[in-house]
Amino acid sequence: MHDEPHAATTDTARADVLLEAMRQRMSAGGIEDPAADAELILGHVLGESRGRVQALAVMREEIPAPLAGAAVELTEERARRVPLQHLMGRAPFRSLELAVGPGVFVPRPETEIVAQFAIDALQQVPDPEPIAVDLCTGSGALALALAHEVPQARVWAVEMSREAIAWAERNVAEWGDGRVSLVRGDVTALEAIAELAPLAGRVHVLVSNPPYVPSGMVPRDPEVREHDPQLALYGGADGLDIVRSISRSARDLVAPGGAIVLEHAETQGRAIRELLSADGWRAAATHPDLTGRDRATTALR
Ligand SMILES: C[S@@+](CC[C@H](N)C(=O)[O-])C[C@H]1O[C@@H](n2cnc3c(N)ncnc32)[C@H](O)[C@@H]1O
């Protein structure tokens, strides 16, 4: 008997050896935290938590070959920079697990902070059934977080992309609790969206994480550049085309005293405060995220 590590027998692979091989493959592909991704992928394949996977590695448990093979296949895709969330089919967002995949923007941790501003504003509304609107909803992340965390709220979510809205529909069915209405439409022509007409002047909080990358600034990470939809990323020459449009047209939707909450790039805070103020919004203020970067601007109607 000897206890040399082995990648696989014919019918099993030892968990710690398998994880190390996965880590090395993804490290070679330039993945930032390949050990974490290896544990998450194996956990996904086994239907186990990351903690349980770590325990399996410590105990040198054997993994059945078909499952090890599935983990290796996903590892190859991840090493080719397919987003981890696409491979797992899920993305965490605040307390939710959203369905994601090709055709929809993967919700990001920085947007969780944007959600907090909108949730705080919505919770302060004295109305027993406050109304929120999420423009450019993508997977439905912001709309669903608002509905989930402000249980008396009604939320409308607008998205233009047919592919993205298919993902949002799944997520609304799973997490919407009957209080999220999904509307297909172009936020640069809000007045043409019939479903929003009854909300004119009644919206307490309008939130948006719109496309805001300047068209000349191609993202460095292949996960973003090659897998997030172009429509989700680019916002014209200075990135602010959609923001300008929202600032103007959202005025008619938001109630006096209501709030607008916008995510943006860290260099865009000042320009957004100026354009909001020029459109008549009051008290425009930009807020740093947990890393000190200006990523959200709020204002009042
Ligand atoms: C940056 S993604 C944000 C998605 C989601 N709100 C989130 O935070 O994860 C921007 C979204 O805006 C959508 N979009 C872009 N232009 C739009 C337009 N003119 N009208 C409606 N939706 C639009 C894109 O399809 C994409 O889903």
Write a structural description.
The chain is an alpha/beta fold. The protein folds into 2 domains: 12-80, Helicase, Ruva Protein, domain 3 (Orthogonal Bundle); 90-300, 3-Layer(aba) Sandwich (Rossmann fold), CATH 3.40.50. It has helices spanning 15-28, 34-46, 50-58, 65-79, 84-88, 109-123, 141-149, 162-175, 222-227, 230-233, 241-249, 269-278, and strands at 12-14, 62-64, 90-93, 96-99, 131-135, 154-159, 180-184, 203-208, 254-263, 282-288, 294-300. α1 (15-28) crosses α2 and α2 packs across α3 (50-58). The model is unreliable at 1-8 (pLDDT under 50). S-adenosylmethionine binds at residues 105, 107, 111, 136-139, 141-142, 158-161, 164, 186-188, 209-211, 229, 231-232, 242. S-adenosylmethionine is lined by residues 105, 107, 111, 136-139, 141-142, 158-161, 164, 186-188, 209-211, 229, 231-232, 242.
Which distinct ligands sit in these coordinates? S-adenosylmethionine
- Main CATH class of the largest domain: Alpha Beta
Cα Rg: 22 Å
Return the structural class. Answer: alpha/beta
Largest sheet: number of strands, sense, barrel closure: 7 strands, mixed
Gross morphology: elongated
Low-confidence stretches: 1-8
Share of β-strand residues: 15-25%
CATH fold name of the largest domain: Rossmann fold
CATH H-tier superfamily of the largest domain = Vaccinia Virus protein VP39
Average of per-residue pLDDT values? 95
**How many distinct helices?**
12
Task: Return the domain count.
Answer: 2
Could you tell me how far the N terminus lies from the C terminus, measured between alpha carbons in angstroms?
A: 75 Å
